[in-house]
Amino acid sequence: MGHVNDPEVIERLMYTPGRWAVVGLSQNQWRSAYSVSEFLRDDLGHQIIPVNLRGEDVHGEKGYVKLADIPAELQPIDVVDCFVNSQRVGEVIDEAIAVGAKAVWLQLGVNDEAAVERAKAAGLEAVVNACPAQEAWRHARRRHV
Questions:
Q1: For the whole model, what pTM was predicted?
Q2: Mean pLDDT of the chain, nearest integer
Q3: Which of 37, 39, 51, 144 is the most exposed place for a label (fewest CB within 10 A)?
Q4: Residue 114 to residue 103: CA distance in whole angstroms
Q5: Angle between helical axes of 7-15 and 132-143 (0-180°, round to 10)
Q6: Which of 125, 118, 90 is nearest to 12 (CA)?
């Protein structure tokens, strides 16, 4: 049996202001990471840190090539939000463990069960195959019902 998301973890990660490293966030406005990261920052109040292969700055935020490049004053990372394909996410999760992140969030369609289990064994919380923007809408509806 695979990982099952805990709705309480989803809600706490989304609504507790924190520092989110968004892996796969670039200046490409056509990618979901671009708008979802704006939502995380502007609507949910999180600090975002772009992480991409070029180390590009995005939304006026300093970018980094990998999680280990993020300076100590921006640690710990509360959530590593993974906008990478499933073949690459295991490497990102291992980096998240190594830098002492508190949680990993794998976007829609992204999964690596073995890597998710490594994260949980290392004490990280995990959300798999979910989008914070969609989850916020679902949680907001439940809060107002």
A1: 0.93
A2: 93
A3: 144
A4: 16
A5: 100
A6: 125
